[in-house]
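Subject: Sanity check before I submit

Could someone independently write out the structure tokens for this chain? I want to compare against mine line by line before I put it in a report. The sequence has 215 residues.
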Amino acid sequence: MGNLHPGRTEQDQALDEWLFRRTFEDLEDRVRPGADLSRYRLLGCSILLRKLIMDGGVSLAKKVASGRGMKAPSFRAHKMRLDEEYLPELAAHGISREMWDAGPVFHGDGIVPGNDNTQVVTLSFDSWPKHVTGQVGGQKIEVRDMIDFVCRVDGGAHAGRVRNPLEKQLRALSPYFLGPDIPGQVLRGSPAGCLIGISRVSIDGLRPLYEVTEG
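---
Independent answer below. Compare away.
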């Protein structure tokens, strides 16, 4: 074993690795190509992502990596184009700056490498949750904002109250995605649907650690 946290034993590490593997497999199954992309199924991704990559030093992946003497995983994602960088293309399609700022824009699957020609960046474990994955009302949305909102407000773990203007705007979108037969492509434009791309980037980054813990 590597650098176990103070007070932790090899048995603790074994339990963490068991949970890490099951959580990874559950997340991968929810967003695999051809999977049932229902809103309810995607809500559960928020809990799994929070467990794996959020909550700082107690995140499951970080603890497992440390116990193995490994660096925390890194992630590769497309950089989202925002503001002035995107305005010429928007104008060509008749979309004004005011319309762009007012409406929700979710990068969704667009952050997954290979999606388009935008820049791909490598992000450290602590930088990945801060990666911009959308904007609404002119305010940028980070990966951690989307995970936390879906988990705590939109029904992943709780159906809680909004705490700020960003969450209020995200919450206003949810009623439009409650029908039983919403196509997957449409669902991708919702807060829960954005977790598809976030999950796939996370899975790719965590896979080397998962493979080390096999057996």
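---
OP: Matches mine. For the report I'm noting this point. The chain has a mean pLDDT of 84.
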